[in-house]
Specification:
Helix 4 crosses helix 19. The protein is mainly α and about 450 residues long. It has one domain. It has helices at about 5-25, 35-45, 60-65, 75-105, 105-120, 120-130, 130-150, 155-170, 175-195, 200-215, 220-225, 235-245, 260, 265-270, 285-290, 310-320, 320-345, 350-375, 390-405, 405-435.
Length: about 450
């Protein structure tokens, strides 16, 4: 059987796994977005940023969710609402799959990257919750995809499409604030590479900035009008006081000096796979833990609170390899950027991959900045970078390309990555049987 056929099977596997998990995963997680959806339905208005704990988010997801919400509180109503998230999750996977198919020619790298996206537990789980994360992840994947298409053929239609998707992203989640300047710069770069003059480049930039800002500015303008500042986070004392729920206070004091920056001891996560005092003060361990496993108890998937959490320990050990590959890929990206600056010439495909890699690093930078600024441990969640996951896959592929230069080492790496993928599937199977009561009460 050809590797191309295997690549197609991964598409079916990723779609089927998301549908399978949807059947037994509850729609709720730790963030109460149904409160916002219900308010819009009953009151006919968008709540102010400080009105509810999650009301600081832009409202596009909550508005679109009205199409799926019956509003009667029944199981059917909640499952239909969750179906909206599932649909965007499926579209996210398809967009990332197509991006991988377009970018990478080496078959083993394509297969490995596709499996990464198909099986990553946190991506699947946060695609099923009633939360704007699912829509943000889709719009982020679509944004990167359109950016690549725009570079290949910078037509007016593709330019407008890029601006509209960026605007919709800004109307969904603040994560896109990190992507907006990069996309605007991308327009300048692409237009100049196409040989357009300065006047045309500036006109194109103005068009994209105006469209994306007009679509995405509502929440920030509303917050500035109401509170005198456009950017409000739910860790803000203003929100804590207005909602009467000072949830952030017990999560503060994440920073404890140099150990918060230098503690990369994954062994602590192996011993304690879920949230605990031994790991919550390390920025790296928080990001590592929330990327590869359900580090924070989120919903009815509670295998991480049973004896089966030993699987989480194994996942953390195996995930050391792809984490090192990602770091290696970041180093390779920096080398390619330095080479491009020196030569002042760069091939279009490489430029597109560099853009995607920088998109992920920009979002990661925003996540770390907010975490440091608020000093709240739950702000250091890797799922907040998922709208730019396509960029992380690019870094992963860069790292795999470096490994490919040493065939023996690459064979070992691909074997261990396959074992890790098997652990991801086993994780969901355990959760499924726990829901059925096969292993006793979850």
């Amino acid at each position: 059987m050809s590797r191309r056929r295997y690549f197609q099977y991964i598409l079916y596997l990723g779609l089927a796994l998301r549908l399978f998990v949807f059947l037994f995963q509850d729609p709720y997680n730790n963030d109460n977005h149904i409160q916002i959806i219900d308010w819009i339905r009953t009151q006919g208005s968008i709540p102010a940023a400080a009105q509810f704990s999650q009301a600081y988010h832009p409202p596009l997801y909550h508005l679109l969710a009205q199409l799926f919400y019956l509003g009667d509180g029944s199981i059917l109503s909640l499952k239909l609402l969750q179906l909206f998230s599932l649909l965007t999750s499926l579209l996210t996977f398809v967009a990332l799959y197509r991006l991988i198919d377009r970018f990478f020619q080496a078959e083993r790298i394509r297969l490995c990257c596709a499996l990464f996206v198909a099986l990553l537990p946190q991506l699947i789980m946060f695609g099923n919750y009633v939360s704007m994360d699912s829509l943000a992840n889709f719009l982020g994947a679509l944004l990167l995809w359109l950016a690549v298409l725009y570079m290949e053929k910078p037509t007016l239609a593709r330019k407008i499409g890029l601006a509209l998707v960026l605007g919709l992203g800004l109307s969904t989640k603040g994560t896109f604030l990190a992507l907006a300047p990069l996309v605007w710069l991308w327009v300048v770069v692409v237009e100049r590479r196409a040989g357009r003059g300065v006047k045309t480049v500036l006109t194109s930039l103005l068009l994209v900035v105006a469209l994306s800002t007009a679509l995405g500015a509502y929440k920030y303008v509303d917050s500035w009008r109401r509170y005198g500042k456009p950017f409000i986070h739910n860790t803000d004392p203003l929100v804590q006081k207005a909602t009467g729920w000072p949830w952030a206070r017990p999560q503060m004091q994440t920073y404890v000096g140099w150990p918060s920056l230098l503690d990369w001891n994954v062994g602590k996560l192996v011993l304690h796979p879920t949230l605990g005092e031994t790991t919550r003060h390390s920025y790296f361990l928080l990001l590592y833990g929330t990327f590869w496993y359900q580090y924070i108890p989120e919903s009815n998937l509670t295998g991480n609170l049973t004896n089966f959490r030993a699987l989480g320990s194994l996942i953390y050990i195996l995930a050391l390899l792809p984490t090192l590959v990602l770091i290696l890929g970041g180093w390779a990206l920096a080398a390619k950027i330095r080479a491009a600056v020196r030569s002042r010439k760069i091939e279009s495909g490489l430029l597109a991959r560099i853009f995607c890699g920088l998109a992920f690093l920009s979002v990661l930078g925003l996540v770390v900045y907010i975490g440091v600024r608020t000093d709240v441990w739950s702000c250091f969640q890797s799922r907040l970078t998922f709208p730019a996951l396509g960029g992380l896959i690019v870094l992963f592929a860069f790292g795999l390309e470096v490994l490919e230069r040493r065939p023996a080492l690459a064979r070992v790496a691909y074997f261990l990555l396959t074992v890790l993928g098997g652990c991801f599937i086993l994780y969901f199977l355990i959760e499924f049987f726990l829901r059925l009561g096969v292993f006793g009460r979850a």
